[in-house]
Write a structure and sequence with these properties.
The chain has about 450 residues and is an alpha+beta fold. The strands form five sheets. Strands 14-15-16-17-18-19-20-21 form an eight-stranded antiparallel β-barrel. The protein has a six-stranded antiparallel sheet with strand order 2-1-13-12-11-10, sandwiched between helices. Strands 5-9-6 form a three-stranded antiparallel sheet.
Length: about 450
């Protein structure tokens, strides 16, 4: 096993069904505290029945110029793009250009299992096609833009992980292939198809796709938090295609999701197909039960950007989150927003960090190994901050919470030191690992 610190009921239903009022002052206070402590940088939007009932934005679109995020700031939304691509495929089905059950050998005759894999299996991640973004050299391969032929060759070379239809396993390759299918069907670039079928009919003035969108107006930069916010390298958007190349605002994303579930883009039969899960996967959607209420969702991560939406059909309510940096556990953010939606009390976090200096931190410095896991972590200090650097990963800034105890809020990783014994205990979720300093 490879160990990594991944620094990645009736009453309630009736409550969410009538949730038209959000405790805005308290939710503002919550996000204000996060923003002031460098825990949040992005936009939050909640809409019900087509009306915005809560919105908050904080942080910088561009730290170098100090340009602030606004409600017009555009974010890369990563895999949330898959929901758009699924909609375009369902539109093509409605236009009788293809069938969900047809095999994909017509489009990709040289792909392994092409005669067995159906369009539906690409949509619900049951194709077995290996996820090309998991390759060890993927980061290096994405240093330059790629053509559709190069993407197809890369995916084909990866082969298959399992027989089509036997199980579900998330693969970005599926939605890159669906993007190429769309371009063959319509004999147009994906960008033009998106504009014709979704952007223009819905009047989404701040939504775009691919390289042109990446250079558009009001785009936010993506950041990673180390000892402070640092600019993230950007993936050429010719690579993720319809699996992750859409750029949009929180407001436009909210309009798209509401239009989708209100029958303004695809018909009821197509929407039902999207919402129906097989092995935990719908078609560009995931189904969750939150505080007893059904929600449909998708999330995305790319180049320092984080995005997701949740749609509650009972209330016709959508919650949208777009961020251009992360330094806090987003599951905690979601839970707080859900409590606000369900009209439940929630707490404002406190970030009264235990004060440390480089001199105090010297006692922890060194290289740590564990007999429980093949993981080497180097501990160092800089600017009165403790830094943890697992081999092969980024450097993580650990926050002191008490003597010898440090945490990384974004991932829930805890480090407890025993200097006299030269030991460090790492905890994350249910996992506890003992490390010894060399």
């Amino acid at each position: 096993m490879m160990y990594r610190i991944v620094f990645v009921l009736g009453l309630l239903v009736s409550m969410v069904a009538t949730a038209q009022v959000i405790n805005a002052p308290q939710l503002d206070a919550y996000f204000k505290v996060l923003a002031e402590n460098d825990k949040f940088m992005g936009n939050v939007l909640i809409s019900a029945n087509g009306k915005n009932i809560y919105q908050y934005q904080a942080g910088k679109a561009d730290i170098s110029t100090q340009a602030r995020l606004t409600d017009s700031s555009r974010f890369r939304i990563g895999s949330v793009s898959k929901t758009y691509t699924a909609v375009l495929i369902l539109k093509a089905v409605e236009e009788k250009k293809l069938s969900l059950e047809q095999p994909i050998d017509k489009y990709f005759p040289n792909l392994v299992n092409a005669r067995k894999i159906t369009i539906r299996q690409l949509l619900n991640h049951h194709s077995g096609i290996k996820n090309f973004t998991n390759a060890d050299d993927f980061g290096e391969w994405t240093m330059q833009a790629r053509t559709g032929d190069e993407l197809l060759a890369r995916i084909a070379a990866g082969g298959s992980d399992f027989e089509p239809g036997t199980k579900g396993e998330y693969s970005n390759s599926n939605y890159v292939l669906l993007s190429l299918v769309l371009q063959q069907l319509y004999q147009k670039p994906y960008d033009d198809i998106l504009k014709e079928k979704i952007i223009m009919p819905l009047g989404l003035k701040n939504t775009g796709y691919g390289p042109a969108a990446a250079a558009g107006t009001f785009n936010a930069n993506g950041y990673i938090y180390k000892t402070g916010w640092e600019l993230k390298n950007l993936t050429p958007l010719s690579i993720p295609l319809g699996a992750g190349a859409i750029v949009t605002t929180a407001a436009d994303l909210s309009v798209f999701i509401q239009a989708l579930f209100n029958g303004r883009i695809i018909n009821a039969q197509s929407l039902e197909a999207m919402m129906t899960e097989t092995g935990g996967y719908g078609l560009g959607l995931f189904k969750q039960t939150i505080h007893g209420a059904t929600a449909y969702t998708h999330s995305g991560v790319i180049d320092g950007f984080y995005s997701f939406f949740y749609y509650f059909p009972e209330a016709k309510l959508v919650y949208v989150f777009t961020a251009n940096g992360r330094n806090y556990d987003l599951a905690k953010v979601n839970e707080t927003v859900f409590k606000a939606i369900f009209q439940q009390p929630f707490d404002i976090p406190s970030f009264n960090a235990y004060k440390v200096t480089n001199a105090m931190l010297k006692v922890y410095e060194g290289e740590y190994t564990s007999e429980q896991a093949p993981l080497v972590i180097t501990i160092s200090s800089k600017d009165d901050q403790l830094l943890a650097h697992p081999v092969g990963q980024q450097v993580f800034t650990m926050e002191a919470v008490s003597a010898h105890h440090f945490i990384h809020e974004a991932t829930g990783v805890s480090l407890e030191f025993k200097p006299a014994e030269k030991q460090m205990i790492l905890k994350q979720g249910s996992q506890t690992l003992l490390f010894t300093r060399k």
